[in-house]
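Escalated from tier 1: zinc ion holo job.
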Amino acid sequence: MSQALALKYRPRRFEDLIGQDSVSRTLAMALDQNRLGHAYLFSGLRGSGKTSTARIFSKALLCEHGPTSKPCDTCEQCVMANEGRHIDIIEMDAASSRKIDDIRDLIEHTKYKPSVGRYKVFIIDEVHMLTKEAFNALLKTLEEPPEFVKFILATTDPLKLPATILSRTQHFRFKKIAKPLVVRHLEHILNTEGIDFEPDALEILARSGSGSLRDTLTLLDQAIVYAKGKVDVATVTQMLGIIDPEFLEKLFDAILQKDENAIREHLRELENYEAEMVIDEMSLFLKEKLLQNDPRFPPMLLERFYRILADAKPLLALGTDGDFVLSLTLFKLVEAMNIKEIDEMIEALEEELGTVTVRETGTAKRVPENDRPESHAAAEPKTVSPADIQRPASETQRSRTPDNTIRFKKLIEKIYDRNAELGRAFEESIEFVDFSDGTLSWASHAEGANKELLKNHFGIVRHFVQEIFGVGTRIKLVKSDNPPPPKREAAEPQSRQSPQPAPDPETTGAPLPDANAATHTASMVEDVDCNSAGCVTGHCSEAPQAKEIDAKEIQNDPMVQKAMELFKAKKVTIRSKV
Ligand SMILES: [Zn+2]
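Tier 2 regenerated the structure:
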């Protein structure tokens, strides 16, 4: 290839312009209806097509069959314009000719009629670079130029232009070219050139060009030379010195799995890269995940990740050891995963406690100092109240598969993922019956240890029910004569697996080992009702019956334990939500 792609594929017609439809349409209409202004201002990102548009527009003004939106490209005027040697198209770069004398020369020029064309077109690029005096000198001519003069001013920074200039021009704003359009254009060029490529490689090039077609084409030029035959991801990432997306995929896998050994290994590889660039690439990767709606990256988690990555930047700016900042950042991301789990636990806890009603009216009682659990005595006083924990609802409103049996299977999987033992107990005991009108009906075959487990972790179950079947889903326990669901082949040994009794009609639906019977010593809550856990243990009726639970039970729940640990809670108050 002898010629740079940006030159070779420079657009010649309005319809060839990439990603600037509204601009080219408006200009074409102005040409066809002969409603022409005398000064135009094109503003926008570099490489977005301003100069190309200015040249096409000039040619369209001068074409022998024009002014027309479809210059013929064959007449003398068009040919000269295309070859960049039209004497009446005068291009000036204000970045290098910014003085008042340069503008005076230009104004002098405007006094003479065009040599061969219909108009004399002045294209002033980077017009914001002109000095104040130069602007002032230009003003008068810009306001009332001779009728054969047209001005096209182009700038990347219209805010730097004096208001007097802005008010005398028709302003066209060029958008940043959308990435898919850039990619499509690259594909077109490579196909035309007969060069093999990987689509992902073009994505990376387009991203690196940041919406500038010219920059992207320059990168493509390089990549073709570098690639020797095929423009692929490996070549492009190597050439640009950026990280292979597959590597990032692996890195985030390790973070999600909290696999610290793998992260350490990845860190060694990352030593070859600039820490700041790695952070940027990671942010971009997360942005992609957000757009792809990847279920592994819920928005809450992404937000947390993003904050951690953003926090790394100032540390790098301090001139600290980049590798150290990077290591710190990766392990902070892992930490964020822990917080996510605690978050979910709190959410589940909130769900659970939300159904607990305090019989007494008025606010819940504080627990006396000496009644609080020993282990938390050292911490400062704090009250955990579910009502205080504000949670966005978005996270719970995800994937809705039309088939309810599939949803129910998903529910089982979710519970499994959280707690394998609970998942197994749920799967073995709970039979899906129906889901309609926001009510999930199931039959419980829970017994013994399963029953206990389900009762104690009902909050988690409910949480996932809401997540999968929608917020506000009611759970209804119905009778079933079917045998309990089949057991799952245990993929991993269950450490505390309890022997599963065969389905026994006698015990199916029998009352659970009574929570009332639990002692009330060291009570943190007084007189509480519960109508929730019965739903998984066969103790639920349509009119929820008042049922007391002991505070100790709540307190012993691993979720509550963890929450107390997290908040260093000295006191726990359980409040009614109603
Ligand atoms: Zn022509």
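Residues 63-65, 71-72, 75, 77-78 surround zinc ion (CB under 6 Å).
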